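## Example record

The block below lists the input lines for one assembly entry, exactly as stored, with component labels intact.
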Amino acid sequence: MSAGAEVGNEDGTGRVELAFTPSGRSVRVPPGVSVFDAASWNGIAIDSTCGGHGTCKKCRIRIVDGSVPVSRLDVRSFTPEQLREGWRLACLAQAAGDLTVEVPPLVTRPKAATVGVGRQVILRPAVQKRYVELDEPSLADQRTDLARLRDGIDDLELTPDLHALRRLPTVLRQSDFKVTAVIVDEALIDVEPGDTTGRRFAIAFDLGTTTVVATLLDLTTGTPVAVQSMLNRQQPFGGDVITRISSTMMDPEALGRLQRLAQETLAELAAAVCADGGVEPAEVYEVALAGNATMTALLLGIDPEPLGVAPFVMATATPEGLRAADLGLGLHPGARATLFPALGAYVGGDIVAGMLATGMDRDKRLRLFIDVGTNCEIVLGDGDRIVSTAAPAGPAFEGGAIRCGMRAAEGAIEVVRLGDDVTLQVIGDVEPRGLCGSGLVDAVAELVKVGLLDASGRFVTNDAAKEIAPTLADRLTLVGEERVFVLHRPAGSVDTADTVYLSQRDVRELQFAKAAIATGWSLLLEELQVGPRDVQQVLLAGSFGSYLSPASAVRIGLVPKLPVLRIVSAGNVAGEGAKMALLSLRERTGARTLLEEVRYVELSDRSDFNDKFVEQLAFPP
Amino acid sequence: MSAGAEVGNEDGTGRVELAFTPSGRSVRVPPGVSVFDAASWNGIAIDSTCGGHGTCKKCRIRIVDGSVPVSRLDVRSFTPEQLREGWRLACLAQAAGDLTVEVPPLVTRPKAATVGVGRQVILRPAVQKRYVELDEPSLADQRTDLARLRDGIDDLELTPDLHALRRLPTVLRQSDFKVTAVIVDEALIDVEPGDTTGRRFAIAFDLGTTTVVATLLDLTTGTPVAVQSMLNRQQPFGGDVITRISSTMMDPEALGRLQRLAQETLAELAAAVCADGGVEPAEVYEVALAGNATMTALLLGIDPEPLGVAPFVMATATPEGLRAADLGLGLHPGARATLFPALGAYVGGDIVAGMLATGMDRDKRLRLFIDVGTNCEIVLGDGDRIVSTAAPAGPAFEGGAIRCGMRAAEGAIEVVRLGDDVTLQVIGDVEPRGLCGSGLVDAVAELVKVGLLDASGRFVTNDAAKEIAPTLADRLTLVGEERVFVLHRPAGSVDTADTVYLSQRDVRELQFAKAAIATGWSLLLEELQVGPRDVQQVLLAGSFGSYLSPASAVRIGLVPKLPVLRIVSAGNVAGEGAKMALLSLRERTGARTLLEEVRYVELSDRSDFNDKFVEQLAFPP
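Predicted structure tokens for the full assembly:
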């Protein structure tokens, strides 16, 4: 099979594509993800009230193209004819291959929504709208406009914004004292003429170092209306948090510029999701944002230098009392902004959001959460005890410091399989241009599997290679003085510039990265006095971690040696956590509670760190 | 005696001038005011801790020119030689004539300050500064910067402004973790390097329809640092609240313009007092503002129309959560603004401030508070019960609708005495140009006293005049077809344009104005079931009321018929109340409590109002 061909749907490691109608949107997800989650993570609303447990039977979809087996509950939910037509429950429909899915329009106005990793959230947003019909004032009833409104909404202690106070007399009298109060927590942020209770929106942001995602939510139904993502405009200042912190240390103007770039990124996304969803920016009354500590500091214009040098100290773990305007967003003038609290300089709000979205605080199983990236955040919990740490994995997973490394963009090899030949899956199905993080992990894992890399991470000799894998051995060659394994060489090309290969040094980079991560979780396992095999579930999170092949992650020792089914791709959990905070005050409180429940373990001052690290460099047997 | 000559110091009705050294400032006050109050109201600090009761004996001053009798307590406080040198206690030194007063520099750092009408206020401002020396962070102590600061100030629950959060990491590290926290209530609004606890300022504003006064206060000592006043820049939109409200009803742009003009007035005054006091605007952390409901609404950009038409409804009685920046002020970026709450559309925050400054909520005597102006606010209380109302007095007191009326500016006749001849006191000691409110009241009162006006308010016939007051009778003449009394005619002039006179219609205008006021307080007396003679003190307040001659006010029936000594000029009580709110959280709470204690009596729907009004038109016998 040649490079660029489709692979992997059969063995459950490649990406599958789901096309949704009538929205026309399509998404690529790891196989095994439920159609419900795939839709939800991508802003396509499917009815549900039970939280994906197959009990409400509302998440009806029709498989128009592709195949999904009939589940036990499908048989109870649909007639045989419907089943033949492709009707399934979305929460139980696992996408094993490419699918085209028809999503019926929403029929229920749910009291709950399903977000995160199967989390069902009772809808109780901070944003409320109350329609009231008030008595008109008279000489016998000279209550102030505010007192009149408060008396009409007497279960809340409303505090008006100045903007709302300015609008109050005019709007009351324009609309015969029939108005809708717009409330966030107990702040009265506006009064609108007549009954506008059906229009209530918020935006959840996942402010990543690389990618920023915005989801526009309808707070009345709990469903996503539109999703957009783009690269963080801070990219020119460096690919990771450390280079961005460094730039502020070298240039006094950099902090202001980075702040503006972050604000512009959010503003562009906000405008895009509003346009996409047919929502006026002034109808967006709240935003929630999950980001790591550096992204959060830069967005707020706080000097990040203390985050970048020991002892790694944040200005605050809990930025509060903010407005969307403080983040440079032109939404409703009184729109509030809720930022996820952080556990530490390197376990930020994005991870707290992820813990919320994955239920790390509630699930009674022993679970390991790993957000793989330049800075890798690791959480281990069993519902009673939760510990977390951060491991400096370096840029390898983002293609940095890798000879043919690149971002997960068009032309990047994302899946590698070695048999008699090399089989590649390339983003965009084009000629391979380089190797992204998941391709790197795959390549190394496969080379270890076939034996071309030994346990210490060294390429075997050419002679040994010819014995071990005669059809692949000629790909082991030299580029300059360095030994490499050629993954792709264009037909007829002799120029190494067109070649995509994995070098000995690349393997070392990956070993350092995975050893840092493995040291992190092994120390956390020690903290809870449990062993690697006790772990019941590993959640791979983040825009990179979600796309890792679980089998390859096990093979190189990035995760504990466990059955592949226990290793789950968790998707964009930071964004999901942000959505939960917008949909439910209870979940928002849960994020604050996590700060007290989670014990942060600092690795950089552990005397045993280096020993453990060296132990983890080798690949597991 | 000719026009323009000094009069009145002897009979206690004219103004006296006090010149203070070394400040070089001089002020004109009604006679009988204590030197302490005269200084305090004008921003000159004199030591005191007892509140003007003669007990602390700290308010030592020296009378350099003029005469002040030695009081019983002066004898105990000074040696005979000191007494001969002119040393007196300022709180007991009544200014009966012009004085030059030497004020020693402040020696104490008081825990209390004297403001208002003899109110002693324990210093406990909302603005606090705390100097802390914090431990530097380490890997063993990774508390966030905010947590570290909070732990150092553990008696408060600090909530940081975003501005303070931005400054925190930088300032902590610039100053070796020795910083001063700037706190308003429990908001952390800034951190400053090193110990800046000695610099802590606030500005009290009295936002009048006509005049706006700003006092810069040193919150550490409770003393005024600088005072400035100017005309409200909204003047071109009309002299009173009704014309300004009308302009917003006719022109949709007017509200925005009026808001900007009010903001500009405050900003100019703020800049002036800061420059005058040698204080950086960024050292001003709070402002307090007392204004009537219309001025407050316009300043905040709230449509005032509902205040101007029945049933006279405010947007809110208690504007809260404001910042100085919301008022257009460029002080510290986190500076807060506290606005006085209002009792009703026509008993606004200025009156609540005045009630605080005069102790209307605490004094056990039956007292009547009257703020004389176009809208006249009246409060009656005995410490247990307090009632208030507003009377529409019209523009007469501000010189409006009076033929030769003018504001209290240079050339205005402010005092009138009739004997064998007419004796006038003119502002600026220049040729009279017109008649201001106090001159109008004086003129009518004197004409009633000599009998040239009868009890019904009609000028007597020329024949009767010649019998009653032969030396004045020829001043009764005609201008056009209207009978007038000529107060001043320039020597040799025959042109009535240069003549200052009082017309029959002017007398009617004043009768209507004083009848409205008298109807107001007589209905309040009925509400408390007491009679006019039960009133133990009448406080005349406001920039106009404070300058009224008590004897003339009694004569025309503007106040109950009481011994003149019971009628007290209270000064700029709105501004004093604003100062109290800045100096003491307890007093600020007191203002809020007043809202519940005071019962507002609406006059405009009283069926007996017209009857009472007609009864009050005549002058008392």
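Residues 245 and 497 of chain B are 33 Å apart (CA to CA). Chain B touches chain A through 46 residues (CB under 8 Å).
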